[in-house]
Design goal:
Length: 120
């Protein structure tokens, strides 16, 4: 699914975490080559929900907020960052209890994402 999306969209990772740890996880998973940009809170100095972490990724990808979609699994923190950055948000709803927000655009599995994005 990520390979298919990568043929049409520029892909990046935005994560709160230690740079070395997050990059080693991506490398170990074999997913690292699928992402043009990896932005960590440690690497840029901002953590979600601060929208500046998303702006760092957008700048690196040369993508405007209105042309971006942020996919995240934290209904509160990820959606707040996306909203503040002016980026559309898609929530990965894993069926866990969520307090407060239930984002309107959501998928239960990442394989549903291309259909939500009207991917052909």
């Amino acid at each position: 699914m990520l390979r298919a999306l990568g043929k049409r969209y520029r892909l990046g990772v935005v994560t709160n975490g230690i740079d070395r740890v997050q990059r080693s996880r991506l490398a170990a998973s074999g997913l690292a080559p699928l992402f043009e940009v990896v932005v960590t809170s440690q690497g840029c100095g901002f953590a979600k929900p601060d929208p500046r972490i998303l702006h760092v990724a957008l700048d690196a990808l040369h993508v405007s907020p209105r042309h971006a979609v942020y996919v995240g699994d934290d209904a509160a923190v990820d959606s707040a960052a996306a909203r503040a950055a002016g980026v559309s948000f898609v929530w990965i709803d894993r069926g866990e209890p969520v307090m407060g927000l239930r984002p309107r655009r959501r998928v239960r599995r990442l394989v549903e994402l291309p259909d939500l994005l009207q991917f052909d």
